[in-house]
C-alpha cells in the first residue's frame, strides 16, 4: 500500500504545478499560449500525470472492493 501513495502524491504535485503554469502562460485575450512549444510539453505531462492519478485510484478502489 505504501508503494502506491508515493507515486500518487508525486503526480498530484506535478499536476498542480503544471496546471498553474499552463493557466499563467495562457493569454485569454488572444486565446494563445505565450510559448506554444513549451505549452505542448506541459499539456502532455499534465495529462499523463492525471492519467496516472486516476489509474491508481481505480486500482485502489478495485483492490478494496475485492478485499471485502
Q: What is the number of E strands?
A: 2
For the largest sheet, list the strands in their spatial order: 1-2
Overall structural domain count: 1
Biggest sheet, open or closed, and with what strands and sense? 2 strands, antiparallel
Q: How much is the average pLDDT?
A: 88
Query: Helical stretch count?
Result: 2
Task: List the helices and strands in order.
Answer: HEEH
Radius of gyration, in angstroms, nearest whole number: 16 Å
Contiguous low-pLDDT stretches (5 residues minimum) are none
Class derived from helix and strand content: mainly alpha
Helix content: over 70%
Measured distance between first and last alpha carbons: 16 Å
Structural features, described:
The chain crosses the membrane at residues 7-24, 36-54. It comes from Mucilaginibacter pocheonensis. This is Membrane protein DedA with SNARE-associated domain. The chain is mainly alpha-helical and 68 residues long. The protein has one domain (2-61). Helix content is 82%, strand content 6%. It has two helices and two strands, in the order αββα. A two-stranded antiparallel sheet has the order 1-2. The radius of gyration is 16 Å and the shape is elongated. The two termini are 16 Å apart.
Amino acid at each position: 500500500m505504501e508503494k502506491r501513495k508515493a507515486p500518487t502524491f508525486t503526480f498530484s504535485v506535478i499536476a498542480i504545478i503544471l496546471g498553474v503554469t499552463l493557466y499563467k502562460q495562457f493569454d485569454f485575450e488572444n486565446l494563445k499560449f505565450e510559448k506554444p512549444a513549451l505549452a505542448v510539453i506541459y499539456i502532455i505531462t499534465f495529462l499523463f500525470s492525471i492519467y496516472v492519478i486516476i489509474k491508481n485510484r481505480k486500482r485502489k478502489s478495485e483492490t478494496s472492493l475485492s478485499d471485502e
